[in-house]
UniProtKB/TrEMBL annotation:
Residue ranges the record marks as coiled coil: 37-104
Domain named Ribonuclease Y N-terminal: residues: 6-97
Pfam families in UniProt: RNase_Y_N
Source superkingdom: Bacteria
This protein's name: Ribonuclease Y N-terminal domain-containing protein
InterPro entries from the UniProt entry: RNase_Y_N (IPR022711)
Keywords for the protein's UniProt record, in alphabetical order: Coiled coil, Membrane, Transmembrane, Transmembrane helix
TM region(s), chain numbering: 6-24
Keyword Transmembrane on entry: yes
Length: 105
């Protein structure tokens, strides 16, 4: 094989290797970018799902707290009504005693 032919073949093989290397590198880079993009999308989806779950949990806790306040307020109102009813009954009894005492005089 002549040195010129050897040089031409070497140059051609070098060019082929460069072109193949370029496309292999480009393919690997695109795969990494695609993987990173998919990973980013998955992270965003997970974050949205977590945020929605936290929102629902906070809403349920707020509803439970409102219910507890309502029950507590209703109990307090019942207790006040009962106390007012007892006071009214005592006043009526005193009034009756006074009326009875007046009629007996």
């Amino acid at each position: 094989m002549s040195p010129t032919m050897f040089t031409i073949i070497s140059i051609l093989l070098s060019l082929i290797c460069l072109v193949v290397g370029y496309f292999v590198r480009k393919t690997i880079a695109e795969a990494k970018i695609s993987g990173a993009r998919n990973m980013a999308e998955q992270i965003v989806e997970d974050a949205k799902r977590d945020a929605e779950a936290l929102k629902k949990e906070a809403l349920l806790e707020a509803k439970d707290e409102i219910h507890s306040f309502r029950v507590e307020a209703e109990q307090e109102v019942r207790e006040r009504r009962n106390e007012l009813q007892r006071q009214e009954n005592r006043l009526l009894q005193k009034k009756r005693k006074i009326l009875i005492a007046k009629t007996n005089l």
